Amino acid sequence: MRDGDGWTMIDCSYGAPTQRELIETVWAKVLAGRPITQLIVTHFHPDHAGGSGWIAEKWGLRPRMSQGEWLTANLAVLNRNTDNVESRGTFYRRHGLSEARIQRFLQGVVLYSDGVTLPKSHKRMRGGDFVTIGPDRWQVIIGEGHSPEHVSLYCAERKILIAGDQILPSITTNVSTWHVEPEFDAVGAFLKTCKTFLDVLDPDTLILPSHRKPFRNVQHRLRQLASHHAIRLNVILDKAGAETCAGDLIDVMFTPGLDGHQVGFAMGEAIAHLNHLMTLGHMQLVETPDTVRYRRISAQDAQVLPHFE
User: Which of 7, 34, 226, 277 could form a disulfide with 283 if both were Cys (CB 3.0 to 4.6 A apart)?
Assistant: First the structure.
């Protein structure tokens, strides 16, 4: 984005050499000799923060991001926190994932550190802050559910939201629970963020997502997302019987044939939806040292309604 005599860059792509070459090709075509003077990172995932260390060093920048994303990135790049593969495998095993799929996950998961370099410091962004880019002021909106403190930027005057991964068209954001916070209701947190957007955004806002194409009619899309999660929650209730576990739900919630990396996302989503059913009073956690299961406590005909309509 044009920013005075330079440019603001938002997100960094994956950090491997091939992606660096592509970014430098783009810079050569669009920067017109002006420097990158500000770097904003929406969240810590490798396709967004991966090249942040290299870009910061190249342009002499201190990237702006939320502290939750900064800290999680620095733990993940050390193969700790959310990216500790062995701990994730143990977590999924306790949640009922078959040994064959455990091995597929362990052999196929892509390490965070494979595609990420991080800068030595950051400038913190908080919800409610305003960031100036050129003549415009952009409000920082913090989202949860997809990542710890995801940053989206809203310019009310121009009716534009730089959404990152919080609102995507046609595909749905991965909403997972991780082993470092095993009872976290990620679905509830994500839906709460959707409601925040519904309350804050002008109905005519243009959404610039990080994946797929820009779109309008954001209120319709937010209601679609609420309905999508309600449908998935009801599928779980219909298939769960008296008691279930996340491993039992993989083939219920997802198309068969997931690769190892996708198995991790699928388990995170299944656990997140089960935890939301606990929040709603439909399920009860039944935990032993070796297993984690969820027992139905609501009436068999009980259903989940969309979070908002």
Answer: 277
